[in-house]
Specification:
198 residues; alpha+beta; six-stranded antiparallel beta sheet
Length: 198
Amino acid sequence: MNIAHRPPARRSSSRCCAAARAAALTTALVAVSAVQPARAQEPVAARLSPWRFELTPYGWFAGLSGTLHTPLRRFPERNVDADFGTIIGDISGIPIMGTAEVRYGRFGVVADLLHLALEQGVDTRDVLFQGGHGRVNTTIGSVVGLFRIVEAPNQNLDVGAGTRIWSVSTKLSLNPGLLPGVIQKESTTWADPLLAAR
């Protein structure tokens, strides 16, 4: 009778050992999985740089209106009025529109550039001149230095100052007809101070 009862006792002991080993292995795996993310995050936090760079292209739906002065006594001025649909067909070259920002901690610099060139034919009725064309170049550049006075997880407040530079140039070309050809150019540039908050 005693011999018949010994094998079950050995099976029970082996099962207990297996269960203990499984529990120990599970505990070790849980401990390793809990420690690994912390170790993985340490190098990432150490590699974080205070520098930040951003580049943002954009587009403007613009119109154009103004007056062109000509050398003709009979037609001293020519009015120009073009909406967005007209301007799309008169764009000359590749327009440039974009904003770049560089930050180092609480300090930052924002630069914005817009350049657009428009060109359109001029109807002269082919009498004094055999047609012509007019061209308008517009360039607007802004530079603003910023300082972050409020920095919170959900909101920031930057203040700063800078300047905006405007440059506009026009060119009117009339092809020779009864009169010799004419090319007239005008340009102007000015700057405005800027105070910024965002």
